[in-house]
Amino acid sequence: MKSQDSVLCEILKPAVIVGALGYFVDVYDLILFSILRIASLKDLGFSGEQLLNDGIFLLNVQMVGMLLGGIAFGILGDRLGRVVLLFGSILLYSVANIANGFVHSVEAYAVWRFIAGFGLAGELGGGITLVSEVLSKEARVYGTMIVSAVGVFGAVVGALIANWVQWRHAYFIGGGLGLLLLVLRLSVAESGMFKQLRATPQKIARGNFLSLFQNGKRFLKYVRCILIGLPNWFAIGILVAFSPELSKALKIQGEIDAAHAIAFGYVGITLGGFASGWFSQQLRSRKKIIFAFILFTFAAMAAYFLCAGVSAATFYLIILFLGVGVGYWAVFVTVAAEQFGTNIRATVATTVPNFIRGSVVPLSWTFKHLNPKIGMVNSAAVVGTACILIALWALRGLDETHGKDLDYIEPV
User: In angstroms, what CA-CA distances link 196 with 200, 204, 221, 348?
Assistant: First the structure.
């Protein structure tokens, strides 16, 4: 068993520090559209229901890009390396966000949000895979906790910057930060596990995405890894992103600003990320912590749906607690990486969070189509409750991975 001092020294490796900064820029860029949705669409000449309908369309386009990018970059990471994955991801989303600052139509907006989403898909999975493989099993959860918790604070900074600068400039800043990050990436070495795998004389299939669907047990495990994260992106992609519209339906006293809602939500996620990672290590269990945080999320959702007529300050506080609940994101992505062998680990760790992010497409579609029938708040409550129940079912069938040795090959 390692001492606390040796664990602390280990998690200060360049892979962890740069991984945290990389995910910080990734989240800043990822959440920009949700922050700038109303301001940017108004500037392009839209108003009324178009702000919601076109906003959902552009968000879905970005998420489809992330779905496809997650698959592409996951395969790239297992075949060419974790560092190559990260370089390609950063370069693509940086250029796309700079270009996004020049758009003058919804069509152009959609094209660049798709490309940005495609590029953003690689950062988290690649960073978590690299950190998981370069750290010992005692330090692994602390490393991924730091990457995730520091990273999600990028949304808070994004919300602050969006209040200080014009929306086009906010996109330029995001792209510029990404390009600066490429320089820092030069100090990061490739995973030793991947180097050993690549150097092995026997031919081992790497990055075979289809292998996840060719074995029933493996496929079900993969699906469960995805489904335990459903509450995360429902909370952020719908309850927080569309809080201005939902707050009006709830008759909240005072106007709710999307940028402030996102800032409060991601402060909560940062706190929840540190708490879930720390408790996971103390209790020596990933599953117990995820279970507890899913229940906490359900309680925060209930408070959100039942808070009709409260003040804006109280509503923002509920959003903060909602963020704490879904802060198990760090542990959730770590669990996905720990479930599979080195030869498909990057593929899994990159696709799983992006399938969760992409789940906002069917979730928002269901939310939108239930809205005319049962009302905005009730439709959100139905979709949210379904996400919680599905996540609990998925968690029940997964193996505990705390302390698991990751240096093994997945038979494919």
Answer: 6, 12, 26, 19
Q: What is the predicted pLDDT for the residue at 5?
A: 53
Q: Residue 129's Cα: distance from chain center in Å?
A: 14
pLDDT class for 6, splitting at 50, 70, 90?
low
Q: Look at residue 402 and tell me if it is in a domain.
A: no
pTM tops 0.90? no
CA-to-CA dists, residue 177 to 13, 113, 154, 172, 173, angstroms: 21, 17, 11, 9, 6
195 found inside a domain: no
pLDDT digits (tens, 9 = 90+) for 377-408: 899 999 899 999 999 999 998 888 777 766 66
Q: Rounded to an integer, what distance in angstroms lies between the CA atom of residue 334 and that of residue 229?
A: 12
Distance of alpha carbon 380 from alpha carbon 359, whole angstroms: 14
CA distance 329 to 128: 12
Tokens of 382: 């139905």
Residue 4 is predicted with a pLDDT of 53
Whether 8 contacts 17, CB under 8 Å? no
165 falls within a domain:
yes
Kindly compute the dihedral angle of the four CA atoms of residues 350, 354, 356, 360, in this order, to the nearest 10 degrees: 180
Q: Give the number of other Cβ atoms within 10 Å of residue 390's Cβ.
A: 15
Provide the CATH number for the domain around residue 280. Answer: 1.20.1250.20
Does residue 269 sit within a domain? yes
pLDDT in tens, 175-187: 888 888 888 777 6
Residues spanned by the domain of 59: 4-187+206-396
Which residues are within 8 A (CB) of 84 and not within 5 positions of it... i.e. 6 or more apart? Answer: 76, 77
DSSP per-residue codes, 157-178: HHHHHHHHS-HHHHHHHHHHHH
The total number of structural domains that make up the chain: 1
